[in-house]
Amino acid sequence: MGTKLIILLVVILGVLAIAQMMRIYELSSKITGKKENEISNRDNRFNAKLMLLFMFIFFGSFIYMMIHYGWVGRGVAASKHGKDIDWLLNLNLIIIISVFFLTNALLYIFAFRFVKKPGVPAYYLAHNNKLEMLWTVVPAMVLAVIIILGLKTWNEATGDAPAESIRVELFSKQFDWTARYSGKDNKLGKFDYKLTLDNNELALKTAATIDSAIRMMEEGPMGIKTLEAKLNDKKIIMVPEDRAKMEADLSRKERLIRLLYQMKEKHDPKDDAAAWDDFIQKDTLYLCKGKEYEFNFRSKDVIHSAFFPHFRAQMNTVPGLTTRFKFTPDVSTSEMREIKGDENFNYVLLCNKICGGAHYKMKMMIVVMEEDAYNDWFKGKMTKTFRDTYFPAVEPAQPAADAENAEGQTEQAQNAEA
Amino acid sequence: MAAVAHEAHGHHDDHGHHEENFVSKYIFSQDHKMIGKQFLMTAVFMGFVAMLLSILFRIQLAWPEEGSGFLSFFLGEQWAPDGVLKEDMYLGLVTIHGTIMVFFLLTGGLSGTFSNLLIPLQVGARDMASGFLNMLSYWFFFLSSVLMMISLFVESGPAMSGWTVYPPLSALPQAVSGSGMGMTLWLFSMAIFIASSLIGSLNYITTVLNLRTKGMSMTRLPLTIWAFFVTAIIGVLSFPVLLSAALLLIMDRLAGTSFYLSDIIVGGEMLTQHGGSPILYQHLFWFLGHPEVYIVLLPSLGITSEIIATNSRKPIFGYRAMIGSILAIAFLSFIVWAHHMFVTGMNPFLGSVFVFTTLLIAIPSAVKVFNYLTTIWRGSLVFTPAMLFSIGLVSTFITGGVTGIILADAALDITVHDTYFVVAHFHVVMGLSAVFGMLAGVYHWFPKMYGRMMNTRLGYVHFWITLIGAYGVFFPMHFVGIAGAPRRYYNYSVYNDFDVDSYNMIMDLNVIITIFAIIAALGQLIFLFNFFYSIYRGPVAEQNPWRSTTLEWTTPVEHIHGNWPGELPTVHRWPYDLSKPGAEEDFIPQTVPLMEGEEEH
Questions:
Q1: Among B50, B179, B203, B431, which residue has the least CB neighbours within 10 Å?
Q2: Quick one: average pLDDT of A283-299?
Q3: ipTM computed for the complex
Q4: Is the model's pLDDT at A86 over the cut of 80?
């Protein structure tokens, strides 16, 4: 507290000191008869010189920064379309930096050159149609080039992915990423958010997962039956707020269960296969150099943005909507480490849309491998498909309390019969 | 027109003598000059609050994890334990900084101050069309400012979803603590703010259209008035859309509707909302949001046009082209909004349409820049503080404008969207250009507002510190952005895990940026001092201190209700007869009749 008081005192004394200086300044200008609105030639020339000086410092520091920082963080693009984007970016930067230098230089030089000189009147010039036409048409032509080239690159980058490109889903939630590979059939299984359970985090839709979700909603520890029992139990005394909360929860679940039954009715078991051979990958995303990928983006809670800075790719993930972006990584991680001269460099997927407190930590590492290594990794993964993780190999009996696991085992048995 | 003017005159005579008490003169005033000053005071206060918030989070960005007495002084143990800012509060500071700067300083403050002060004075009217609505407009603005300030002090923190408050983040208190009470206050504050802005804008439009004095045709209006007039029209057409966006968001939050929500599980709770679209909100928001950029910028461009012409002692070059480009910018501003949404998953074809329309805006903007340059060319420049800030505006308008071309190009936007490059771009155009225009306006019309002069020397110091400080803050940000650093990151420690070189570069620049930000902020204290000191102690102003041609300088220095003591002035010429060959003085006021054989412009 003591320091704060001292700081405040210093501030107050500082203001008083400036006020005193102002008084002295005013008294002296009163004596000399100087008026605030009449700018002396000395002041004018001083500011004019500062304008020129500022221009040199401004341009100089810009050039220094371009040399020193220009491409440090960006590096070369690691994807095919990324190289086109960088080419276009460089072209645009050359254009805008030239315009920047030219017009700013004119401004500061004019400000320096045409400062008031006693006896020299300003040149009365109200308009000039030819000049005005010139600086309407020239920017328009330059912009036409920018637009045409820009749209060409944009259409290539956002066009539909070819059928053979590898489908991978990126699932976002506060505050991490999960990838789902489409497995051997290169088809991502369907999903519905209402099927989300601890053993089905991505809410994949199969006959088994629907049944399991219905059971959990009805009979789980916070299921409809439990809630109803609690609400109707006259022995339990609840605070009104808690009771209201529980009632709201119940009505929500009653609406959801109806939708789940509808889903069960409409579900086509033929779709299940596409989901069962998918596999889920956390922490690190593995990609194959030279293969085209189509990423499908999903979000569980709020909007996130999948930002791949090194691949020049970005797409928002929107709850309730699947978004897509395709690219072909063409520089492997080890190659990029060599280019950058940094042993520890890695590609990364960042979140680039504000999504809550830990937004800045939401990332997933990316490794781009050569084809052989990728195929080996993929083969290994095919033994851990969604089916394998959903129905784990028969283990010694779990404690009876773990109802969910027991259900899983019965389902596995049923599946084996089928 | 003449009939209206006479009627207003008669009205004035009837009521001109009654004494005003303190409340009706200083608080619930219906005089446009006083209301303009009220807007300015409120906006200056809000602006300084927002600037302080930015210094707080800049300290966090430059020296993360280090305890700072400055932070704990302002934020206390709850939000900055041991002087280290909390993650949530970082987002809160960023959000409220943006909201205040864009809406309260640059929309309410800029239009509110100068439209109010200058429209009646420069068109030759006794007051606004409706003094009462004008007063209402200010008090709504005041109320919304108070609500926004209160939201900083609620227990769960202020709104934390960025100044654009995209749902679902802003709709779900489970997602971030600021989306609780803080967000509710934000929405109500903004709803009231929009009401204020609408009432004000309707008043400005009516006044410009109906209350021009005799001889003041539309093509004799100063460019300031054209800018305020078009700004008001943009506001009337776009702000209601933001209001509807905000109302739907309020419904989603309070009434369980699903306009913006679909298939969400948050905090372990499975919501039943289905079928809404968060993208809808973004469309609605940016339908205001983009015109808003021009609501912020056009008044500043108008103000500088006037100041540059006066202090170059030359007519503004291409008066009609300037009006044309204001109108073109205003029109185009309504069909470019989705360029903020290239990577939301919007149809790519739609994206290409918006690339086209957006890049078109560069043409009228370029015309304006070249017209400014030609106005300065072969002028006789007088460097008043207002003139310095106007030249600063032209420079930052160029610098910020050209980077807009990168962002408008969808293909390039993929790589720089939501990075510091965007932050740099819009701060240079809105944070620097628009603020420079506002400061220029304050220096230029201070004698009209308070009847006294501001100190010129302090003005010079203020300008040079601001120009160097502000460029020092926002120029390096371009490089951070090109490197790919996302905005709204609490710190960049994550880079240590994959690219140490980039991390070092970002941190280097972050420290430089913060140091310049502190310098620039301290520079504003000089302005604050000069401003308040001059209100009470500045030398008394002359009637026409800048030797200007427009009508406001024909009114007496002492403010009177009704602006002109006798009859309203009659206008005979356009406002830019500066250094006209054959004239004795280097300026001819608009009230001077044409000389024999003189041609009107």
A1: B50
A2: 95
A3: 0.93
A4: yes
Residues B14, B18, B21: CA angle, nearest 5 degrees: 145
| Band of residue A410 on the pLDDT scale cut at 50, 70, 90 | very low
C-beta separation of B359 from A147 below 8 A: yes
Range of the domain at B142: 2-10+31-554
Chain A residues with beta carbon closer than 8 angstroms to that of B339: none
How close B467 gets to chain A, by Cα (Å)?
9
CA distance readout (Å), B40 to A19, A90, B226, B438, B587? 23, 43, 21, 10, 29
Instruction: Report the b/e string of B22-48 with b at 16+ CB within 10 A.
Output: eeeeeeebbbbbbbbbbbbebbbbbbb
Spatial separation of the C-alpha atoms in residues B537 and A30, rounded to whole Å:
13
Question: Which pLDDT tens digit goes with each residue over B278-304?
Answer: 999 999 999 999 999 999 999 999 999
**Cα Rg of chain B, angstroms:** 24
pLDDT confidence of B29, banded at 50, 70, 90? confident
Residues with Cβ within 8 Å of A412's Cβ and at least 6 positions away in sequence, in order, are A391, A394
Residue A254 reports pLDDT greater than 80:
yes
Residue at B550 is within a domain: yes
Q: Does A155 touch chain B (CB under 8 A)?
A: yes
Query: What's the rounded Cα separation, in Å, for the pair B410 and B351?
Result: 7
Contact B443, B545 (CB under 8 A): no
Among B373, B417, B453, whose Cβ lies nearest the Cβ of A110?
B373
**Spatial separation of the C-alpha atoms in residues B58 and B52, rounded to whole Å:** 10
Which residues does residue A114 pair with via DSSP β-bridges, in sequence order?
none
In eight-state DSSP terms, residue B169 is T
- Residue B567, domain member (yes or no): no
Residue A175, preceding peptide bond in cis (omega within 30° of 0): yes
Say if B493 falls within a structural domain: yes
User: What is the distance of C-alpha A120 from the center of its chain?
Assistant: 58
Copy the structure tokens of residue B307: 């100041």
Instruction: Give the model confidence (pLDDT) of A160-207 as tens digits.
Output: 999 999 999 999 999 999 999 999 999 999 999 999 998 899 999 999
8 Å CB contact of B317 and A127: yes
Does residue B541 belong to the interface with chain A, where contact is any CB pair within 8 Å?
A: yes
Q: B421-465: per-residue pLDDT in tens?
A: 999 999 999 999 999 999 999 999 999 999 999 999 999 999 999
The total of structural domains in chain B comes to: 1
Q: Give the model confidence (pLDDT) of A324-333 as tens digits.
A: 999 999 999 9
Bridge partners, B497 (sequence order): none
CATH 3.30.460.30 is held by the domain A165-189+277-394:
no
Residues of A in contact with B383 (CB under 8 A): 39, 43-44, 47-48, 115
Q: Does B380 touch chain A (CB under 8 A)?
A: yes
CA distance B309 to B375: 7
Q: Domain with B451 in it: what CATH number?
A: 1.20.210.10
* A120: pLDDT strictly greater than 50: yes
- For residue A48, what is the nearest residue in chain B, using CA coordinates? B383
Mean pLDDT of B18-25: 72
At residue A318, what is the residue type? Answer: V
B158 touches chain A (CB under 8 A): no
User: Taken in order A147, A148, A149, A155, is the CA torsion positive or negative?
Assistant: positive
What global pTM score does this model have? 0.92
β pairing state of A304-308 and A176-181: unpaired
Q: Is the Cβ–Cβ distance between B104 and B46 less than 8 Å?
A: yes
Q: Where are the domains of chain A?
A: 39-158, 165-189+277-394, 206-266
What distance in Å separates the CA atoms of residue B492 and residue B506, rounded to the nearest whole number? Answer: 8
